[in-house]
Amino acid sequence: MAKPFVSPDVIRADFARSMSEMYRAEVPLYGTLIDLVAAINAEHLAQRPGLRAALEASGDLDRVSEERHGAIRVGTASELSMLRRLFAVMGMYPVSYYDLSVAGIPVHSTAFRPVDEAALKANPFRVFTSLLRLELIEDVALRTAAEEALAARDIFTPRARALVAEAEAKGGLGPKEAERFVAEAVETFRWHATATVPVETYGALSAEHRLIADVVSFRGPHINHLTPRTLDIDAVQAAMPDRGIDPKETIEGPPARAVPILLRQTSFKALEEEIGFPDAEGRVTPGTHTARFGEIEARGIALTRKGRALYDRLLVQAMAARKDRGAVGFKAAFADFPDDPTTLRAEGLAYFDYRATDKGRREGPPEEDLEALIAKGCVAAYPIVYEDFLPVSAAGIFQSNLGDSAAGEAYAAPSKARFEAALGAEVYDEFALYGAAEARSIERCRADLGQALGVA
Ligand code: OOG
Ligand code: NI
């Protein structure tokens, strides 16, 4: 009898746990942040028995404070395409294209994440993955040095490569192989206290852009942050200094609202860490590198294309208003974004998960219209959580960790086609994923209501 395969969801959960353990051990301040988030989440839930019951009912209570994402940066197309294959073993697929070059950061990115509702529920861990755009380095000698350093490294262990190939050939991994796979995969994301380039090369790469030095000078794409979910991001931001954590000045994303939308994030600034830089004779020069930080996030409802266009428009206004009038101006600019579920639905701004209630199951659908059924209590509409990222927030997070000098001029045009060629696959369209999830929920809901009348 063939050995049963371990579910990719289980492999992903093990991987997320291993990454968390490694990062906590290596970055103690991150452990402090995790503890703070857990304490504030517990306090928040204690004051809101309704929310607590809802999270318990949906099976999310145990895991509210757990990591939702991490981030890495790679240097070449072959590294990116191999990562795609590695993440696929864990049920993580590339969703969305993010162009960070518009913010003066020479990368473009995607997020590897679970794509269907069941997988997201089982474990939502995702990895924001950026590819360096080496073509944006104008100095030919420096670009060549960077290319050579990248060509000389293999960021994957031989065993990780072999297990990816095995999973692809057989369609999955058995328990022993899965366990080994996680241990080998984590190696790719480990920190290295010794660089691969001399201190002069590091300095020249840094002068071009600190991110280039970060990607090129090491043996692998160290995980640069992990991000737990908080239920009260404003409270965590305010409490960080008391625990010796220095947060960035502002929370990225929309202001606090009755119906949270998209994603709000904040982080503590990256730590300066000691690094040894080898020279040609094998002597090691001490130096430092700043890359690793901690971040927290609060996720709200996913917006439709129409909702997102409105958000993007208001964000531009809000950022201008912040310059003139500070946080008050920023918040005021978002007043035009409807902040109640009924209007969000009526205007088609956000995605909802529709479910038949017990009453609906008993009474069936006297009305066809979902909104009428909601009003009668036969259908309940829950927000579909935004699972992706915001380029403006990502740029803000990048910049706060690279120093403000990194906020360079715009680099180049976005190049989704080039990114997908490097990746070896197309990225999923996030709107299509949310739209399909909503449509499936409506179908299920109608079937449940129809059953009550015996018509299904
Ligand atoms: C990634 C920054 C983006 C987020 O949460 O928006 C990100 C990086 O610094 O490599 O993780
Ligand atoms: Ni992040």
Q: Assign a percent range to the helix content.
A: 40-55%
**In angstroms, what separates the terminal alpha carbons?**
39 Å
Biggest sheet statistics: 5 strands, mixed
Mean pLDDT: 91
Structural class: alpha+beta
Helix count, DSSP H or I runs of 4 or more residues: 18
Care to give the gist of this entry?
48% of the residues lie in helices and 15% in strands.
Please give a structural write-up.
By secondary structure, the chain is of the alpha+beta class. The chain has helices spanning 8-26, 28-46, 49-57, 77-89, 117-122, 140-151, 158-170, 175-187, 199-208, 210-216, 233-239, 305-333, 341-346, 358-363, 370-375, 391-402, 416-423, 430-452, and strands at residues 67-74, 93-99, 107-113, 126-132, 225-228, 263-268, 272-278, 284-290, 294-299, 352-356, 379-383. Helices cover 48% and strands 15% of the residues. A five-stranded mixed beta sheet has the order 2-3-4-1-5. A hairpin with a 5-residue loop joins β7 (272-278) and β8. The radius of gyration is 23 Å and the shape is globular. The mean pLDDT is 91. The protein binds 2-oxoadipic acid and nickel (II) ion.
